[in-house]
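Q: Given only this backbone (328 positions), what sequence would you predict?
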């Protein structure tokens, strides 16, 4: 039978069908785009924190070497890190890293001895710290806050050859600048009057030099640092890693610090072990066989050229593990 449908009607029908098909395709495309995975580069980057321990003069040089090696061999740079916490020596090394300074240039300065050291002479070794403060720093009696308060009380009374204001001003000359870095950088310290640990941050309104100086104020050797009517010193810290991981939603912590209980007592092995058992990735760089020498001579700036070389070696040894976390 002959089809009586006009050619105009057939063209109209085909147009409707084509239009419907196009609309369906657009809807499908839109749905697909809304359910697609986010850009992999940002979505897959792990959230990483760096925790830097104490170590005096040699600790600054050693950590600088470690960080330089990790930057060169594992691409550990500020843009792949979410927070940096630094204690004492780590507050200075952490400020350099967080500000994005050229760590290879700093290594060369360490090698040549072209670095600023403490504003008072240590005379070599730990003998610069009064024996009663050494005993208090090494004590295991009471809570950590109680120990910190005991050290703080002694530190506030100890005679030192430089004032708090002059010490802060001197530390300012050691820093990359007066402004806090954009990266979340937190120098730690202890309130001398209470023993409470504080992690300073940019939003606290405290000058960067004062925050770093309060972290590096070795008791009995350097003055307590006065901030807003209270005094701060380099005493035993309470554990902060668990709170930091929760606050920053971290996937990994890179801990860089030699065991120096008589300076800052910041090795958080127990806390890190618990976090690791719960799924956190933890890399520990705590020094090799040369660590005891660097700890013993922690306040001697003459050891810094050797310390930076040891740091480069220790950082290189850990580079593959760090790269695996950063670039998974």
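A: Predicted residues:
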């Amino acid at each position: 039978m002959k089809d009586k449908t006009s050619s105009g009607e057939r063209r109209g029908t085909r147009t409707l069908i084509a239009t419907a098909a196009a609309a369906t395709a657009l809807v499908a495309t839109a749905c697909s785009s809304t359910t697609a995975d986010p850009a992999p580069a940002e979505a897959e980057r792990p959230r990483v924190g760096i925790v830097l321990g104490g170590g005096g003069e040699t600790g600054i040089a050693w950590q600088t070497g470690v960080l330089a090696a990790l930057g060169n061999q594992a691409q550990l740079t500020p843009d792949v890190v979410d927070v940096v916490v630094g204690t004492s020596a780590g507050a200075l090394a952490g400020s350099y890293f967080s500000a994005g300074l050229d760590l290879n240039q700093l290594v060369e300065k360490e090698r040549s001895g072209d670095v600023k050291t403490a504003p008072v002479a240590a005379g070599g070794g730990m003998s610069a710290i009064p024996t009663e403060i050494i005993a208090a720093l090494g004590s295991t009696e009471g809570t950590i806050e109680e120990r910190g308060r005991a050290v703080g009380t002694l530190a506030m009374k100890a005679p030192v050859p430089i004032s708090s204001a002059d010490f802060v001003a001197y530390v300012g000359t050691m820093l990359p600048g007066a402004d806090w870095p954009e990266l979340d950088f937190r120098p730690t310290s202890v309130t001398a009057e209470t023993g409470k640990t504080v992690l300073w941050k940019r939003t606290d309104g405290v000058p960067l030099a004062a925050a770093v100086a309060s972290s590096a104020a070795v008791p009995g050797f350097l003055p307590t640092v006065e901030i807003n009517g209270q005094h701060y010193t380099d005493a035993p810290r309470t554990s902060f890693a668990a709170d930091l991981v929760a606050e920053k939603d971290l996937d990994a912590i890179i801990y860089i610090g030699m065991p120096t209980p008589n300076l800052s007592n910041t090795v958080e092995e127990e806390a890190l072990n618990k976090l690791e058992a719960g799924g956190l990735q933890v890399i520990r760089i705590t020094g090799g066989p040369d660590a005891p020498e660097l700890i013993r001579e922690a306040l001697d700036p003459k050891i810094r050229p050797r310390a930076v070389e040891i740091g480069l070696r220790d950082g290189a040894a850990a580079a593959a593990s760090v790269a695996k976390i950063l670039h998974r």
